[in-house]
Write a structure and sequence with these properties.
This protein has 104 residues and is an all-alpha fold. Helices cover 83% and strands 0% of the residues. Helix 1 runs antiparallel to helix 2.
Length: 104
């Protein structure tokens, strides 16, 4: 028969590995989003101020619409990452500082 301590240790290790994979996937996705935001910020800054003739304004409007579509495309990724992070944190046991509760 397998001692209970070994079973608990095995379960704990599996949970840590699963949590590690989950966090790594979430962090990778967040890193990709941050890089996307930085690229878009650079692109938008490079567009300059709004103005000019009708053709210039039309191009700026088209650029704006394209950017809004890209934002809408990213929305599910952002919302999924937020939900995933919140669920992960909600399922984690609260952190406790045993140094204050032990002794005196």
């Amino acid at each position: 028969m397998i001692p209970q301590e070994l079973i608990q240790d095995y379960c704990f290790r599996n949970r840590l590995e699963s949590n590690s994979e989950h966090w790594n996937a979430l962090l990778l996705s967040l890193r990709e989003l941050i890089e996307w935001v930085i690229r878009k910020d650079t692109e938008l800054t490079g567009l300059g101020p709004i103005g000019g003739d009708v053709a210039c304004l039309q191009k700026q409007q088209d650029d704006h619409r394209a950017f809004r579509r890209q934002l809408e495309d990213k929305r599910p990724v952002v919302e999924n990452n937020l939900l995933s992070g919140r669920q992960y944190i909600a399922n984690e046991p609260p952190l406790s500082d045993t140094s204050d509760s032990e002794g005196g």
